[in-house]
Write a structure and sequence with these properties.
Blueprint: E1 2-7, H1 16-26, E2 32-37, E3 40-43, H2 47-52, E4 60-66, H3 70-82, H4 87-101
Antiparallel strand pairs: 1-4, 2-3, 2-4
Main location: cytoplasm
Keywords: Cytoplasm, Phosphotransferase system
Family: Belongs to the HPr family.
Length: about 100
Amino acid sequence: MIKKEVEIKNRTGLHTRPAAMLVKLASKFKSDFFIEKNGVEVNGKSIIGVMSLAAEQGSKLILKFIGEDEDEAAKAIIELFESGFGEIEELKKDENRDGSQNN
């Protein structure tokens, strides 16, 4: 079993799009995947479960991976969280675009 704490970095939290990305990625692995927030644990392969966490920016989550490909699953899913589900990079691009227009 692998257990890792992550923080929601993207501004809008774990809303529909990132939740769907997470579930889709998690479903590619055979390992079981669970997410815990404030003592409530849900199946990380369930869109309803993930959405029910209502995890906003700054939320701390505990990810648990159990199974034969847990190392690969943990690596991929933790990278997704660390990237802010792609929204942090999009925000930086928007800020750069806006900044360059002001000059």
